[in-house]
Amino acid sequence: MEYDWLSLLPHLILAGGAVVLVAAGAASRRFAGAVAPYFTVAVAAATAAAALMLWREPASSWFGALTVDPFFVIFAVIFAATLALVALLSARYAPLDGSDRPEYYALLIMVTCAVTFMASATNLVLIYVAIEFSSILSYILVGYVRGDRLSGEAGLKYFLYGAVASAVMLLGFGLLYAMTGATDLAAVAANLPHMGRSFETWGYVTVVTPSGGAAATLSPVFIFLAFGLILVGLGYKISAVPFHMWAPDAYQGAPTPVAAFLSVASKASGFAVILRLVLTLHGALDLVYGGWTKYLAALAVASMVFGVVVGIVQTDVRRLLAYSSIAHAGFALLGIVADTQLGFASVIVYLVLYAAMNIGAFGTVAVIGHVTGGYDLKDYAGMGRRHPVLAAALAVFLLALAGIPPLSGFFAKFYVLAALIDRDYIFLAVVAILASVVALFLYARVIKPMYFGKAEGEDVRRFSPAAAVALVICFLFTLLLGVWPQLLVAWAKAAIIPLLPRI
Amino acid sequence: MVWLASIIIIAPLLGFLIAILWGKRMGEPKAAIAPVAALGVSFGAAIALFAGTLLGYGGDFSYTWFRVGDFALQVGFLLDRFAGVMALVVATVSFMIHIYSTGYMAGDKLYGRYFAYLNLFSAAMLGLVLANNFLQAFIFWELVGLTSYLLIGFWFEKPEAANAGMKAFITTRLGDVGLLVGIILIFTLTGTFHFGTIFGLIEYGALAPAMVTAIAILIFAGAVGKSAQIPLHVWLPDAMEGPTPVSALIHAATMVAAGVYLVARSFPIFVAAAGASEVVAYVGATTALMAATIAVVQIDIKRVLAYSTISQLGYMMLALGCGSQAAGIFHLYTHAFFKALLFLGAGAVIHACHTNDMREMGGLGRRMKWTAATFILAALALAGVPPFSGFFSKDEILVAVVDHGGWYLAFAAFFTVFLTAFYMFRAIFITFGGKAGEKAERAREAPWNMLGPMVFLCVFAVVAGWIGIPGVTKGFAWLAGFDVHGEHYGINVGAAGASLALAAGGIGLAWALYRLKVYPVEKIYRTFRPVAVVLERKYFFDDVYGFLFVKGTVFFARLWGLFDNYVIDGAVNGTARLTVLLSKFKGWFDLAVVDGAVNFTGWITQAFGKTFRRVQTGYVQEYLIVLVCGVIAILVAVLVIL
Amino acid sequence: MTITPLHFVGVSALLFGIGLLVVLTRRNAIGVLMGIELMLNAVNVQLVTFDRVYGPERLDGQLFSLFVITVAAAEAVVGLALILAVYRSRGTVAVDDLHELRG
Fold it and tell me: Residue C54's closest chain A neighbor by CA?
């Protein structure tokens, strides 16, 4: 079915929801502003339901532009859940009070729509448009706080960085198109190994190869270049070193719920595209000289080490979490490096578990920042006494991020490590474990003042029930999936198996 | 059944969370509501579970926790009659002690936290007895140890309490190392943690005999630590620094019995292991005898009971070592009730007199009638006087020992009966009889919420043994579903008569010396001065350890001083403990956070961090230059490859 | 001489390089924005060239470039809005004045 409207349903619900919200805002600002968070949650729930309904055999539609498969469904559910949680966290977030509220939520919904497209797109054009779509909306959200110096600075810097990174990626897409004459991923995958023909016809070989050899010696180089350039754009999306530099600034300057969204949904969407490209173009990737996994491994190790090392000296909690998210991106990349079914599945498991704990961490930081007005480590002194519940929640989220066993973070890391050891990548596993050990310091830096610092300032006041609901959900998820990860692993495998290259 | 088992464990866990998070805010007495209710739920579920196992709904329920490649980590419940009985005992005693504590701990400033720990302990203990594999059992085993540490040191302002907690933690840890090595050994040899599979393999003879013996001894090492057997018994008397209900629950009825439980659960291993049973029997007998002799000279009422507990645990081990699983666990089961009751009675007395010293009490029988009555009934049960519960279980042990043979074992078993009766009634006559001591004059009977549980437990202390009346009831082995290989079940008139005579002798001697005062005790004391000194110095165990580990102690003191500062600082807030608790799951976390050595890593990392953060200059165009450098690196890679 | 696709690729690469240089060197945020536009259009040249290479019956390249133009327009709109917002709060549009967030 080329015109399969059903496959578009999750995207349409999101787009429709955003339009309705903007229209309602035009009709009555106060009413729309008041219901917007809850309307957003409803839209997210509908999207997740529609996506789950589409859990079925992979089906390509819209002339190959979209593929709806379990892989898409899992990511759509992650995005919808993130949307709902971030909307709840934003409900009474003070810095947003002066800004236009219904539009804020409409933008959130639209970003979710964009990242959902990233998970389903199987055409270079649609992938590019979806990535740009999500980036452009993210720039607005980061700079959303009106009249705030830092928010504006973060928005503009994020914009300039993102625009250049995606232009570089676009050049890579252009190269892929030039080599294959196709934008559909399946066609690109089919043509890429045979691309020599077209270059020969146009007299390329003689010019480009110094050895004057056949096209076969040429093509891997261009394939390599194309993938390298694409990696810049996707590395920026997942904030992997050395394309990570926007992240700390953007997370610090943005409204904290937006930072939560960026660090979870945005990152996951980048991984969705990477996974789909790697799995679909697996045959072509093997042409990369010396094995493509080496390059990803270098990126992953750099991200883990750099994220942890620089994160450890941060004093702003949002920056600290930003560096932590860079390290986590590196860890998750290792799953792709393993290049096995278990490895790919472990990435999905990682992203799901990471989503819950990271939203929880950012959410708690947002709530604490909301009631105390501070994001510095100093502001966390004695939080364990000033608000035991919030402090305990944050401690649990941070320990989960550190990978302490009964919590979900342990399993996230465990599966990636298992995949690495399965392939005898012992060195990478050791580096990953060492980075995790050092990362513990990173999180201990926040936990320590909470419990062992002198309580200054008054006790924390009550905070919004909506945010409390969001945090409780994250908390349960972090706890329960640590105890029972098996179901999630089964889903992740079901999502990966249809995509695995048939060798 | 699985649901019941889950409820039994999850209810107190929820109680723990509620109490730890909101206990302080709720204040007294509201903070106790959720924990007590949680244990009530567990108690109800444990009754249902027990009934279910009796009706044959039990079984071994395994679930895959997670799977990686070929290896699947299984978790689950082993819900046989043995587990049912254990869960019932633990839940009953724990529930009663929760109620009792609402009275005993009234006015304590850490009221909510106390109940939180008690809940956590109950959850862990119940999890331990319901586990169906060694790994799960070990996790709960450690958690039980941790809560014990927290509760012994509950009044951490008292240095004795803090030190006692530390001592208990370190001493039991020595045994735990053995247990852990044993479990790892089992896993490397069999590839599984599952009880049933392992026992099946061992019975089938799949493992080398030497290995089986090694495994048995290592498991027993863990039990020696937890159940305070010689030579690792030194922590238990000091553990009496904790609140008395804690002593009753953890250090008399349940946790210390966990070692006995583990040995009984791994019984097939001990049966198959040549020589291991002998070790168990001799360690048990020696412990029983030695601890009973020390109890004779104690003047602190809780220490009398503590040594009595050690002695009785030795008795249980002795039974297991003599090859009678049923007798050992039967005694565990009756002992849990009457010893918990004795501690609660002691707690009531201490609560009334504000002292532990028996010489300052006296004459309490008239002021605290209910307490005195229940205490005496429990003491009779402990002394093994029919028809109280202890008589039946003790008799089965004596029969097992006689059948097994060995003059030393028999001597230790019978002489301990005499000593037990003597020291218990010595304590009773000093405390409840005679004239009122200086602190006993204003003593009043305990409030109803303390007396209620005592009366309830007293009923059990009297009737619990009646399951083992030969010819009338079916016997404990039937109740707990033990396989009795030709082990006869019936009363041995000789053993029963001898033990009864010895108990009567013990009681009579106490009556003569402390009530009728036919001969001044001080004179005996002076005559046998060398013996008395040996007993008072507790056979010099603490002195020798003190000497041997002076260097070690200094080291430990430093290490644990750091740990303790960390914990005690955190004690201002309950949730800090949560952090520490979570940290227990991964050994390196303590070290990573606490130990100065690792700070070095932190320092290096920080130094690098300070350098590398300069890259992030804040200028977006410089960020982009880094990005372009990344692109150039890719181009260079292309050229290099060409 | 005949003009081959290679010549177009050369032009495209040159444009991209110039765009990148502009992005890296201009102080004015609007100048940087223009550099980005240049980079995107460089890719457009390439896309349209290869659209011709692969024959008139397939239009993927042209289609792609149309989308790129649209995206570039959207990007410019948002970029200008952000620049305006920063100008309002700080009175400057120089990118190297924006370095409060760092470290």
Answer: A181
